[in-house]
Amino acid sequence: MNPPYSRTAALAALIALFLAFPAQAGLYISGDFGMNFGSSMTTNGHDTDRASVCDEYINPQYATVTQTSGFEDTNCTGANRGSDSLWKNRFGSDEGPLFGLAIGFDMPESIFRTELEYFYRDTGYDDTSNVTSTGGTVFAKLGGELETAAETIDSVTSHNLFANLYIDFDNPGGITPYIGIGLGLGFTEMDYGGVFQRNIDPAAISTGDGLPNAAEIKANLAGTTTTEHEELDDTLFGYQLIAGLDYPLTDHLVAGLKARWVEYDSFKDKDEWDVLRSHASNLRRDGSEPVVYDIKVDDMEMFAVSLTLKYRF
Prior knowledge:
Strand content: over 45%
Helix content: under 10%
Distance between the termini: 41 Å
Low-confidence stretches: none
Order of helices and strands: HEEEEEEEEHEEEEE
Oligomer: single chain
Mean pLDDT: 89
Shape: elongated
């Protein structure tokens, strides 16, 4: 995870620039407030877990699993953990507030202007969805051994710092249309949760079939849950396309309307589970072999519309 101070670094940098730049011709400051509309997102999950029969809490005889016919290839102690633990999910689009601050400069005798912008967005997805498998065998158990497999995204927030370049188009009517492009970073947080719950009836558990202590494995596994609720975070590179209209209210004050589309690279973070099969997020009773999951989220896009107010020095 990123250090906590990264969440306010963008705003602190912009405030410092406001204080550092003396007022001069061509310089302006602006603020905007509006709504953002986050795109639908696909989550891809993976962890370093092993098969449940390799979990010492579930199967105290895990070290002898490969001695049973049909389980010779079960990876209870070797490398390459997690190859069978893959899942994905899809979340719909949603919206939330956006506000921003910027300091910019109109280049003399030019249609171009430059700007350093901070903006904050909070997209309240507040969505829980059942996951689907992308590989392995674990999700073949959905509806039987596995009663619940769901992920939740409560919100996605980001503090963004972008450098923008605009082109202003002269218009005799007083309204100035403009377009722009920007590059920057989004210090992003995602309120993530997951619940994976086994059937409480040992008879519904298929894990362990064929092993000498199958009844013990089924009894230990029945009703167990794997859960997580964590504030994941990542710093994302992004670019934005901007279009808007400005209208002068006075010689110094300008009101306007701005639309932007922002695309970021994929969001990625990892952590240990809060609870793994109703025990600590490791596979051994001595605390060894910790299990870490990672979440990758594609389609990190956002559209926003905002009202702007600009003061020209």
